[in-house]
Amino acid sequence: MTATNYAVAPGEYLEEWIAEEGLSQQRVADLLGCSRKQVNEIINGHAPVTSETAMRLERVVGIPAASWLRYEAAYRADVARIADEENLAAHIDEIDPNAIAYLRRLGATRATRRDPGRLVSDFLAFHRCGTWPAYTHLHESATTGDYALAALKDAGATIDITVLTTWLRAGELSETFERGRGYVYDPDRLREVLPELRDRAARPDGDMLQDIARGLAGVGVVFMVVEPPAKFPLLGMTRWIDKRVPVIQQTGRWGKDGFVIWTLFHEIGHVLNDPRGEMHLEYKTEKKRNSAAERNANTFAMEVLFGESGMQPFEGLTTNSAIAAAARRVGVSPGVAVHQMHRRRLLDYRFGNQLCKDLAGTFSP
Questions:
Q1: Taking the domains of the chain in order of start, what are their residue ranges?
Q2: What's domain 11-89's architecture?
Q3: In the chain, is it the N or the C terminus that has fewer CB atoms within a 10 Å radius of its CB?
Q4: Which of 34, 80, 79 is nearest to 14 (CA)?
Q5: Phi, psi of 110 (to 5 degrees)
Q6: What is the rounded CA–CA span in Å between residue 223 and residue 216?
Q7: pTM value?
Q8: In whole angstroms, how far apart are CA 234 and each of 112, 261, 271, 345?
Q9: Burial of 354 (0-12, 13-18, 19+ CB in 10 A)
Q10: 62-74 burial, b if ≥16 CB within 10 A, otherwise e?
C-alpha cells in the first residue's frame, strides 16, 4: 500500500455516521455515556479512541471495536510518519542526484524530490539507518569499520559520500556478499593461487570473471561486480566483512579487459598487504591514486602480472602484432599490456585498442 501524505482520524468515520443518522454530537455523547467535548475531540483527532471507547462505539455505531482500534493505530502511525518525513525533508539536498537516480534504478524508492521526506526516508531505510544523524555518524566514523572514508580524504577525492555508500550498500544486498559472510579467508592460500589467477586472466573470455570469482572464493575472498551509479569515478574497491573476509567489489561498467584485470590484481594487493578493515578505492584517473597504499598496490599488481622486467618488453612497440607477441611471452593478456602502456605513456591512446576485449555483461553473481 502506498503511503499517503495525510492522516485519517477515526473520528471522521464517526462524523460520517452522525451525519447519515441525522444526530447531534450531544445526542451521540448521551448514547456513548461521555461528554460532548470528548465526542468533538474524537471527531477532530484530538482525543484517541481507547479500548473502552471502541467497545462503546461498537454498541452504538455497529462497527466492531477491533476496527475502531485499527483506525486509531493507523491514524497515529500516519501522523508520526508525516511528522517524521517533514523533518527528514530538510536533508534532501544532502543526497546527491546520482544517488537518488541509482536508488530508483535499484527499486529502493519510487519517490522523487517532489516528495522529499519520503525520498530521504527510503534512502535511510536502504542503508538500515533510523535517522539522518545515524547515517552520517556511521559513515563519518567508518575509518575503523567497513567504509574507511579516510581513503577518500587521502586520495583527495570529490566523490559524493551518498553515492559511494549507496553503491557499497547495493553490494551488501547481493547474494555474493551474503555467501561471503561464511567464508574463511586464508592469505597463504591466496598467495599460492596467484599464479593460477594470473594464468586465467591472461586468457580473457566470457567465462574468465566467473572462473576468477570461484578461485577467489576458494581461498575466502569475495569478488563481485556491482553496477554503479551514473558518472561513478571508481573502477573498484577493497573492504572487509567484520574484518574477517575481504571483499573486492568492482563496477559493472567494465570497459575493456585491461581495466578489469589490472584493477583486480591491484585490489588483491590491498587484501594481502594492508591492515584488515581498511577500505581502498581504485579510481579511473591516475591523479586520485597518490597514497602509499595505492602505490604499493600498483607495485604489487605490476610484479604479479609482468614480473621483474615490468614494462621493459613493451618499450618501443607500436604495432598490434608486436604487442600481442610480447604479451604472450610475458604471459599476460594483450589488453592489460595496452592498458599499462597507455597509462605509462609508452603508447599513444590511439593505438592498441583493437587488442582490448570487452568483458561487459560476462559476470553474473
A1: 11-89, 189-355
A2: Orthogonal Bundle (1.10)
A3: N
A4: 34
A5: -115, -5
A6: 7
A7: 0.80
A8: 26, 15, 17, 21
A9: exposed
A10: ebebeebbebbee
